[in-house]
C-alpha cells in the first residue's frame, strides 16, 4: 500500500491527509478548511442496489398516515419530571393475518418518538371480550420513555382541532423536509475558482447533456410548484427557465447559474443553497477555498472521465463532523439515470445530515426545538383540562373530513411511499408440511434446512427436496451451519441437544458418518470462526462456552478450553478475521472475549432490554473514515479496528473497538438506533440491517442506523416469520409459515438499480411547498 499523500484531482487547495491504497481511492477523509471529502468504495466492494433516501417523510409522518383517518386518543400533560409539555397519540392498528397492535407517538419539544406495541394472543382475547386498554400499561411498554409512573399528569383531549395542530407539529420535525434547492455551476477548462465559474453564461455540450439528465426544463414566469426561491414573476430576475425533478417523494428545484442573468445574481441565489453541484470540463479542479462564505456546505463535483466519455466521476465534500450517509460512493458511474438517482439520494441524505448535526452552523435542531416547544405550550393551554381522565383508550377522536387544507398540506402535496423497494423476494421452497426451524445455505444452488423430523437438502438445480437419513440423533433440529472449506455441516439437534459434525459428501451420496461432540450435551447455541488461520467452534452449555479447534486429520473438532460466564449466553458470534474475537451476550450486556488470551472486555450494557444478536461488520466499508475489512486503518495506526453491531430487543448500538499493539482495548459508542417495532429476529444483509416482527420488516442503513424503508409483512409472501434468518453472500434466506402444515423458504436480495430510469419529471410538478 502506498503511503504517499495526495490531493484530489477535482478538489484543490486541500490539506491532503488522505492516502491511496492499492485498490484505489483514499482510505482517510481529506480536509479542506471546514470540508471533508468522502472516499469512494474500493473496487470489489461496490454495490448496485437501489439508492434510497434515508428517514423519509413517509416513514416518519405517522400521524398523517395512521391517525387522522382512524379513531384514536390524544393526551396532554406537563411536569418537570417529564421534560415540560408532552403529548401522546395512540391508535389501534388491526393487521389482517397478524392481529392488533397499538401505534404510539410521544411528542416532545425535541421531536416525535414512534413506537409500536404488539398485542399478545392473551391480550387480544381480552380486548375482544371488551377489556379496555389502559394508558398506564401503554406507557410502561415504551422503551426509554419513563412516563408510566406519571400517567396521572395527562388528560384526554377530545377537541378535534388537536388533529390539525398535531399535523402542523409533525411537519416541524427537523431533517424531514421534502423540498430541496440544489445549486448547479459550470466550470470550463482552466477554471478553478468560484468567481470564474459564476461568470459563465453558458456551458459545453457535455454540460448541457448533464442538465438534460438532471431534470425537466420549466418556465419560471407563473410557475406554481416549489420554486426554491427563484423569481416566478414576469420580471424573471433569476432567469426565464430552470430545471426540476421529483425523486422518491421529494421535490427538487435546480438553481442553475448559467440560466441567470449576471454573476451577482448567481452568487446571491446559489449562496442560499446548502447543496451545490459543480460540473467541470476536462481534467479540471475546483478550489473549495475560493467559495465565498455562504450557506453551501455540500459540494458535489461531477466530471466526464477523461479516458472514457461514457462515464462520470463524482467527488463529494461536505462540512466536517457530518454523519456518514448512504448510498456509498463509487469512483465511476455510467452516464444514465442510475447515476442521477445515486447523486440525488446522496445529496438529499447529506443535506439532512448537515441540518440535523447539532455542531453545524446550519443546524436546524435548535430552531426546530424552540418552535415545537412553543407549539406544545400553546396546545397545553388550549387542551389541558383539570378534570381527571379515566386513563383508558376509547378512540376519543374520530376521523374528520373538516381538517383545514393547510394542516393536511403541512408536509406538501404528493405525499406517498417510495415505490422502489429496497428488497425483492423469491420463494424457493413451497408447501413444506412441518415447521422449518433452521437453515444453512451451502451455495447458490443448494440449501440445508432442519425441521422436527430431521435434516433436509434443497437442491435448486435438480429441483429435488431430499430428506437426509441421519438417524434419530438428527431429529429436533435447532441450529445449522456449514463450513465449506472443511466440507462439513454442523447441527445442534436431538431430544437432548448436542452438536454433530457431518461430512457433506457422505451425507448426500453415501452412508452418513456422524460425529457427535459428547461434551456438548444439553447445548443451546454454537458459533464458528477463525483464530489465526484455524477454524474454531464455540458451544454454549448452560453458562459455559466450550472452545474447540478443527482437526483436519480426524475431520472433527477437539476441545481446547472452557470459559464460564455469570449467566447463560443468550447469543454469541465469533469473528472470521483471524483475531479470535468472540462476542457473547448474557443477561443485559455484551462482552468481547479474546480466545487467544481469554481476556474479556465489556462492550455495552442496557439494563432495560434483552440482547438478541451481534454482528462483526468486517464486510461493511465505512467510507470517509476507515475500512476495517481491508485492514487499512490497522496498517496506518498499528492497531486493530473493528465495529460490532449489538442488537437488543429495543435498539441496535454500533461500537467501535480499537486494540492497540500492547493489547489495550478501547471501546467507543458510535450510534444507537431504536426499532419502531420490537423484533422477533434480526439479521445483517450488508449494507443493511433488518429487523423482522410479526407485522413489519424494518430496513436500516448499518453504517448510521437510519431507517430506509418499512414493509408491512403482507408484501412478502408470508403471514408470519419464524425466528431463524440466515444470510449468505448478498442473499437472505427466511423460513416462514403460511399455515400449520404449509411452510416455505424465501430468498431476499437487494433490488438492483435500474440504470435506465430517471427521476420523475412529471409527478407533483405543481406541488405546493407550504
From TrEMBL:
<dbReference type="InterPro" id="IPR035974">
    <property type="entry name" value="Rap/Ran-GAP_sf"/>
</dbReference>
<dbReference type="Pfam" id="PF00780">
    <property type="entry name" value="CNH"/>
</dbReference>
<dbReference type="InterPro" id="IPR050989">
    <property type="entry name" value="Rap1_Ran_GAP"/>
</dbReference>
<dbReference type="InterPro" id="IPR001180">
    <property type="entry name" value="CNH_dom"/>
</dbReference>
<protein>
    <submittedName>
        <fullName>Uncharacterized protein</fullName>
    </submittedName>
</protein>
<feature type="domain" description="Rap-GAP">
    <location>
        <begin position="168"/>
        <end position="379"/>
    </location>
</feature>
<dbReference type="InterPro" id="IPR000331">
    <property type="entry name" value="Rap/Ran_GAP_dom"/>
</dbReference>
<dbReference type="Pfam" id="PF02145">
    <property type="entry name" value="Rap_GAP"/>
</dbReference>
<dbReference type="GO" id="GO:0051056">
    <property type="term" value="P:regulation of small GTPase mediated signal transduction"/>
</dbReference>
<dbReference type="GO" id="GO:0005096">
    <property type="term" value="F:GTPase activator activity"/>
</dbReference>
<keyword id="KW-0343">GTPase activation</keyword>
<feature type="domain" description="CNH">
    <location>
        <begin position="433"/>
        <end position="726"/>
    </location>
</feature>
